[in-house]
Amino acid sequence: MSQSAVKEGFARALFVGAAAVSVLAVALICVFLFANGLPAMAQIGIPEFLLGTTWRPANDLYGIFPMIIGSIYVTAGAMLVGVPAGFLCAVFLSRFASGRVAAALKPGVELLAGIPSVVYGFFGLVVIVPLIRDYLPGRGLSLLAAALLLGIMILPTIITVAQSALDAVPQKYYEGALALGADHEHSVFRVVVPAAASGIMAAIVLGVGRAIGETMAVIMVAGNQAVIPGSIFDGVRTMTANIVLEMGYAADLHRGALIATGVVLFVFILLITMLFNVIKKRGEAR
Amino acid sequence: MTSGTMERVTTREAAGATRTTVVPSAGAAAGAGAAGGAAPAANKMVVSDLNLYYKEFHALKDVSLTFPENQVTALIGPSGCGKSTLLKSLNRMNDLVEGCRVEGSIMLDGSDAYRDVEVNDLRRRVGMVFQQPNPFPMSVYDNVAFGPRTHGIKKRAELDEIVEQSLRDAAIWDELKDRLKKNALGLSGGQQQRLCIARALAVRPEVLLMDESTSALDPISTAKIEELVAELKKSYTVIMVTHNMLQALRVSDKTAFFLLGEMVEAGDTDTIFTTPSDPRTADYVAGRFG
After folding, report:
1. Same domain assignment for residues A85 and A185
2. Integer Cα distance of B290 and B284 in angstroms
3. Hey, which of A37, A198, A257, B71 has its CA 20 to 30 A from B102?
4. Are A172 and B150 inside 8 Å of each other by CB?
5. A283 pLDDT exceeds 80?
6. In total, how many domains does chain B have?
7. What is the CATH number of the domain that holds A196?
8. Residue B52 structural domain
9. Across the interface, do B136 and A180 touch by the CB < 8 Å criterion?
């Protein structure tokens, strides 16, 4: 074998190995989660586990329905806050801001993405929670606080992905609209934004994925009661919070139930990722 | 400004007889009325002493030119001669170019396109078809209805009628009438370009600018669009930039030749191609450069 063939073979092996690491990691996580979670789920009974409304490990009652609802509520609330703000910010950065304004805003958005979630949680705890406690009903630690905080946390994800989708829209569409006598706003919102629709949808789905998986910041402001909240001012416990709060001392079936909660969370993320890929493919097909 | 130039404007009588009038190109006298009073074809647009700069670059130098109503005017010349720049200043698409500065005047029906006419209204009245077909990534119907909707037409029946009429005017109704709901990006290049013409016609423009609109198309599609232009000039004033001199000869009534930002010569197309007065024009139309 010639020297260059050896070198090439070595490089190839290196790249394959590097690529295999991430795939292997996903596979291992899958195996671990399902191997540990499914037996517990089976022991509890799948309907009792998924739809049971009482979570009382001391009495061997493991219904995670309040946590599923909690995750969905918090994520939906975060979307209500983060999607309009993030989308409009992306449109502004892509099509309205002058070069200098965009250059000033962009690092701000990037910094927002880099802030550790515990710092977000701290901000929520000392700013958002007291505000809600002082001016609105409830103790402040609430679904509303978690939704507001998560809404801010997902902004960078939505802004960055949506903006690159908007930036990728060919200028000829915009010019075509202008040449028909449409003004700037009309051209942007009726031609450029629809042309970037799949990318913007992908941004939103990524935001959902980020929101549903967030743990630390949510634990710090959500109150974490394992009951279905009656209003946005009530406390709420998400699936992620459920796992983190109890994993430290859980044993046996309790521990299995927490891992099974992770399985449910994993399936949620899987569905979201699949949705993201479908949207992306559809966008490319056009 | 090239001192004391007189622009030779050739117009055709309705009967078909050709006569030549001489119109001074300088100053306010070149308004729509100046030529319109004497000649049967009024000037739809009049460009006077136009100087255009891209930052420091002097892209158009003292250009004065008239565009007779219901005629096809072709702008020819080698790449970078300023013909597309002139076209884009007629509907102010040059406003998008940073550092673009315009001096002189462009009149549309006697009102100043840069001062008296609101820019979006100007672009509605002076439609444009681009070099690359640029249908929006939406249905055929929505493409054509985009302009009318932009200008406030909401009623479905009215839109239906405009869409059908515009597609008919662009000679593409028969091909597309069963595909109105299909995405326009699925059409062939030639169909896309005719769809873009239909889209431009849907806002009822008075002038249609065509920026090398057939250069990206195959010969058959090109022939279809040339036929279409001959039909369109009955209702519209057409101004086209073309690299294809045979195309200018085939479809235009008037031709203006540009070189390095200057308009060398303008006049009746047959004259420009057979007996041009400037040797540079003669060289260019004979294919000796450019």
Report:
1. yes
2. 7
3. B71
4. no
5. no
6. 1
7. 1.10.3720.10
8. 6-285
9. no
- State whether residue A182 sits within 8 Å of chain B by CB: yes
DSSP A5-19: HHHHHHHHHHHHHHH
What domain count does chain A have? 2
- Taking chain B (290 residues) in consecutive chunks of 10 residues, what is each chunk's mean pLDDT? 40 38 40 43 91 93 95 93 93 91 93 92 95 94 95 94 94 93 93 95 95 89 91 94 91 94 93 92 83
* A61 burial via Cβ count (<10 Å: 0-12, 13-18, 19+): middle
Rg, Å, chain A Cα set: 23
Question: Tell me, what DSSP letter sits at residue A95?
Answer: I
Q: How far does the CA of residue B152 sit from the closest CA of chain A (Å)?
A: 11
Establish if A109 belongs to a structural domain.
yes
Pick among A172, A180, A188, A282 to test the B interface (most B CBs inside 10 A): A180
Q: How far apart are CA B125 and CA A173, in angstroms?
A: 19
CA A275 vs CA A142, A154, A206, A268, B229: distances in Å:
29, 18, 10, 11, 47
Beta-carbon contacts of residue A168 (< 8 Å; ≥ 6 apart): A196, A199
A58, part of any domain: no
Write down how long chain B is. Answer: 290
Spatial contact of B91 and B120, defined as CB atoms under 8 Å apart: no
Residue A277 above 60 pLDDT? yes
Nearest chain B CA: its distance from A187 CA (Å): 9
Instruction: Note whether A181 and A212 are same-domain residues.
Output: yes
Q: How far is A182 from chain B (nearest CA, A)?
A: 6
Residue A1: predicted pLDDT: 60
Give the model's pLDDT for residue A250.
87
Q: Supply the pLDDT for residue B38.
A: 43
ipTM: 0.81
Whole-angstrom CA distances from A125 to A218, A235, A242, A280 are 10, 14, 19, 37
A157 lies in some domain: yes
> Torsion angle of alpha carbons A119, A125, A131, A136, nearest 10°?
130
Range of the domain at A17: 3-50
Write down the pLDDT at residue B40: 57
Domain co-membership, A8 together with A87: no
- Burial (CB count within 10 angstroms: exposed 0-12, middle 13-18, buried 19+), residue A35: exposed
Say yes or no: A30 and A133 in one domain: no
